[in-house]
Amino acid sequence: MTQTATATTTEIGPTPAKWQGLGLSVVRVVVSFLFLCHGLQKMGLFDKPAVSFGTWPGWYAGVIELVGSLLILVGLFTRPVAVLLSGTMAYAYFVVHQPDALLPLQNKGEMAALYSWVFLLFAVVGPGTYALDTLRRRRKS
Hints:
The protein is mainly alpha-helical. It has one domain (about 20-140). It contains six helices and no strands.
């Protein structure tokens, strides 16, 4: 007699898939909150002068960071917004940081590179279990 194990239930707690959805949601919220702080800083908070209205690219980057991070925070339109934010950070890295030196550690572009890759991850895998996108998708089905 052979026994087969199932990966859908455990006696200790949630299944791995539930942990993945929760973990992704927590990372999404934390990353978007940290990114929101960058947008707020460009608008004059945290003892920094505001970027002048309409200046390229700083003011536009600040608006994109502010609005985009709020949408990612609640998990609304996560994938398209994450693509936009990933591109914004890739632009920041290659235009602002990379000309100074080759490596992110040398050109102070680590945060831009890291945010770009994390937002690209959200674009590929989605927002996680606890997001407005997930709620909207469940209501449609």
